């Protein structure tokens, strides 16, 4: 898999991949999320390609205190090939180069398989509660 920065022309296949992976929820418009990311650290939005097909994505960010991973996706027919590990490790390296001391991500507590995946990469479950406040409604 080749990992490269996202390009606007990738929007349709990326959104299709997110749909296929169940990452799209009614309160987040994926096109708006892409537009927002292109305004803030677009170089930290990655796609993974195999023979011209986008099979993985990862949207990272770093605000000077913590790094974040979002929209981590691997095409279901490409699971168990190390592609998720490859794109996450790529993002970790890019965040490390920026001096990022810690990375956070959110996984639904019911998603044991994904939690186990991140634990296999060295992530640990933090004793913290995730809170959020919607400032702009996409729905």
Please give the radius of gyration in angstroms: 15 Å
Largest sheet, spatial ordering of strands? 1-2-3-4-5
Number of helices: 4
For the termini, the CA-CA separation is 34 Å
Stretches where pLDDT is under 50 for at least 5 consecutive residues are none
| Alpha-beta content class | alpha+beta
The major pleated sheet works out as: 5 strands, mixed
How many strands? 5
Q: Beta fraction of the residues?
A: 15-25%
Helix amount: 25-40%
Overall pLDDT: 95
Label the overall shape: globular
Name the helix and strand elements from N-terminus to C-terminus, one letter apiece: EHHEEEHEH
Overview of the structural elements:
This protein is 30% helix and 22% strand. The chain is α+β, with helices and mostly antiparallel strands and 139 residues long. The protein has a five-stranded mixed β-sheet with strand order 1-2-3-4-5. Strand 4 (67-74), helix 3 (83-97) and strand 5 (103-104) form a beta-alpha-beta unit. The longest helix has 15 residues, at 83-97. The mean pLDDT is 95.
